[in-house]
Write a structure and sequence with these properties.
Layout lengths: L1 E7 L7 E2 L4 E9 L8 E10 L7 E6 L24 E7 L1 E4 L4 E5 L4 E3 L7 E8 L3 E2 L6 E9 L1
Antiparallel strand pairs: 1-12, 2-11, 3-10, 4-8, 4-9, 4-12, 5-6, 5-10, 7-8
Length: 149
């Protein structure tokens, strides 16, 4: 068994989001080398540089939700063709206010993922639950940690 600690820094809108909109587009987490590996997702955290608070959810997919809109600042609606790619929707609710930056986390999760043949990555969409305004296109980092095997 090995561990993974992957951080994704999506380009986000420097401006307003409405509740239910995707933040940063499709997030891809590369979790090491090899294929047909099981992943155990232990924690998701979201670091926000702007002094904003929101209710966040992250939708975890075992494969690319290719029929669903994945655009930053677009309304999230899961296409029925992608329904069985969803592994879990996780509220990222534990907020730690560092002053100006805020950190949201969810864990311990212990979610087993089976990304499929020839891959060791999973995908996610971060969904804003209340509406917020970011101040820079690099305001967000999403971090996933866990175990591969």
């Amino acid at each position: 068994m090995a561990t993974f600690d992957v951080t994704v820094t999506p380009t986000v809108t420097s401006g307003a989001y409405s509740a239910g909109e995707i933040v940063g587009g499709l997030l891809t987490f590369e979790c090491g080398t090899g294929s047909n590996r099981r992943l155990i997702l232990n924690e998701i955290s979201v670091m926000v540089k702007a002094a904003v608070t929101s209710s966040l959810n992250i939708v975890i997919f075992e494969a690319d939700p290719s029929s669903t809109t994945k655009t930053d600042n677009a309304a999230y609606t899961l296409n029925a063709a992608d329904a069985f790619k969803v592994r879990k929707t996780i509220p990222v609710t534990t907020l730690y206010d560092h002053g100006t930056p805020n950190e949201y986390s969810s864990g311990p999760l212990n979610i087993v993922l089976a990304p499929g043949p020839d891959t060791s990555k999973f995908y996610a969409l971060l969904i804003d639950g209340t509406g917020w305004t970011l101040t820079s296109t690099s305001d967000i980092q999403v971090r996933a940690t866990g175990i591969t095997g």
